[in-house]
Amino acid sequence: MTGLAVLIPLALCMGALGLAACFWAMKSGQYDDLDGAAHRVLLDDEDLE
Fold this sequence. Notes:
The chain is an all-alpha fold. The chain contains three helices and no strands. InterPro entries: Cyt_oxidase_maturation_cbb3 (IPR004714).
């Protein structure tokens, strides 16, 4: 039973940390250009020179 007293707050803290990381990623613009990386993969290096 004492294990639950440690694991439940630990799980809540880890969930809050993950949620904060998700909000930070959205605020910093990580999800703004979802198609850019897909288009860069298809470009040849010869086109860039």
